[in-house]
Amino acid sequence: MTTAQIISGKQVSDEIRQNLKTEVEGLAAQGCVPGLAVVLVGEDPASQVYVRNKAKACEDLGFYSEVHRLDADTSQEDLLALVHKLNGQTDINGILVQLPLPEHIEEKAVINAISPEKDVDGFHPVNVGNLVIGDDSLLPCTPAGVIELIKHTGIEMSGKHAVVIGRSNIVGKPVSLLLQRENATVTMCHSRTANMKELTRQADILVVAVGRANFVDASYIKPGAVVIDVGINRLETGKLAGDVDFESASTVSGPITPVPGGVGPMTITMLMKNTLLAAKRAHGLS
Ligand SMILES: Nc1nc(=O)c2c([nH]1)NC[C@@H]1CN(c3ccc(C(=O)N[C@@H](CCC(=O)O)C(=O)O)cc3)C=[N+]21
Ligand SMILES: [Mg+2]
Questions:
Q1: Which of 2, 140, 183, 273 is in Cβ range 3.0-4.6 Å of 158 for a Cys bridge?
Q2: Degrees (nearest 5) of the Cα angle 233, 1, 217?
Q3: 87, 118 contact by CB (below 8 A)
Q4: Ligand 1 pocket test: which of 50, 107, 139, 266 has the largest number of ligand atoms within 8 Å of its C-beta?
C-alpha cells in the first residue's frame, strides 16, 4: 500500500506559473512581453503533444509565441536559416527546437546555431559550460524542475547522498551538477555500473532518468528516500509509465513523483521561467 507522500508536479507547477503570470503582467506595463518560438520538424505524435502543451502554457501566461511546423524532409540548411532568423527577431526571447530531429539533420549544428541568450533549453555549449563553472546560465528545464520538486518537499539537500541513474546530456549530467550545487554528495550510475542497487540503496535522494519503463522498484530504495522519476515511456497500451515502478517503490520511499503529473509539467514551467528571464535580460530588466 502506498503511504508515501506524492509530490504533485502539477500542483507545484501551477503555483510557480501563478507567480510567473503576476510578473508577466508587471512587465507588460514596461513594454516587455516574453516571446517563445518552438520549432518542430516532422510529425512525431509525442512531440506534437509537448509542442501543443508549450504553446498553451505561453497563452495562459500572456507570452507571445510562434510555433513553426516544418516537414520531416526539411533540409538542415533551411532549419539553420530559420534559427538565424529567430535569433534576429526582437519579439522572440526563447528558441526551442524540439528534439529528436530527423536523422539527416545534425542536432549539434542546430543547438550551436541558437544564440546562447535565447537558448531556453540550456543545451548550448556556452550555457552548459556556465552550468559546470557555476556561473549564471539558462538552466536546462527538466533538471531545474527536478531541483524545484525536491525543494518543495522541504527536505534539505545539503550533506545528503543523492544518486542519479542516467548520464545523458539533457538530464543525468546536468541534474548531477545542480544537486552538487545544492551541496548534496552525488553518485552517478549508468548502464555499466556494476553494483547499482548497492549504491541506490544508500541514496537519500534518488533521481531516475534511464528511459526504461518501471526499471526501479522497491528493492532499489532506502526507506524514506525522496524519489524523482524523470522517465516518460509510452507503453504499447498507450499508457504513460515512468522509469520507476510507482506501486512498488512507494511502499518504501518517502516523497515520490508520479508519471504523469510529476516532472513533465515542471519541465514546461521551467521553460516558461527561462523565457521570462531571457526576456528580462533582453530588456535590461534583470
Ligand atoms: N528541445 C527539446 N526540449 C525539451 O524540453 C524536450 C524536447 N526537446 N523533446 C522532448 C522532451 C520531452 N519533454 C516533455 C515535456 C513535458 C512533458 C509533459 O508535460 N508530460 C506530462 C504528460 C504529457 C502526456 O500526457 O503525454 C506529464 O508528465 O504529466 C513531457 C515531456 C520535453 N522535451
Ligand atoms: Mg513525470
A1: 183
A2: 40
A3: yes
A4: 50
Q: Return the exposure string of 42-76: e unless at least 16 CB atoms fall within 10 Å of the residue's CB, then b.
A: beeeebeebbeebbebbeebebbbbebebeeebeb
H-state helical runs in the chain: 9-28, 45-61, 76-88, 107-113, 125-133, 141-153, 172-181, 196-200, 246-249, 263-282
Structural domains of the chain sorted by starting position, each given as residue range(s) with its CATH number in brackets: 31-115 (3.40.50.10860), 141-264 (3.40.50.720)
> Model pTM greater than 0.95?
yes
pLDDT tens across 236-255, in order?
Answer: 998 999 999 999 999 999 99
ipTM computed for the complex: 0.95
Dig out the grid coordinates for 37 from the structure. 518560438
Counting every residue, how long is the chain? Answer: 286
Which residues lie with the beta carbon below 6 Å from any ligand 1 atom? 49-50, 53, 96-99, 121, 141, 232, 240, 259-261, 264-265, 267-268
Tracing cell 539558462 back to the chain, one arrives at 138
Closest CA to 271 of 7, 32, 63, 88: 63
Joined together, the cell numbers standing for residue 207 give 533521481
